[in-house]
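tool=predict chain=A
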Amino acid sequence: MTQRTARITWLTAEQGGRGVPPSGPRYVAPVRFDGGVDASECGNWSLVVELVTHPAPSADWIADVRFLADEAPQTWLTDGASFALYEGKKRVAVGTIVAETHRANEGAGVALPTHDTRLTK
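tool=predict ok
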């Protein structure tokens, strides 16, 4: 099973998302990836999100992510892949898979990539 690092931005209630980010360090939700994925593999998949760090003062998370199911399309978890997390029909967060070197340098003040703006609607 593939596990990667992602930067996740939790959408505010005003943006149609959650009022606050999840309270626990582990969160599981349905995920939709950007259109760059192979449509023949489309299906309903859930992503497991494990909090690594929460850079203050933002609502962003640096998290380890993996699919809940082993048979999910692991190739979608590639550097730069953009995704959105859902609670029912409500999009609650957007994220981007980042290179492992970004995670290693995150504490050193290195800027991490932001989410893909194509997922904001």
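Residues 100-105 form the longest helix (6 residues). The chain has one helix and six strands.
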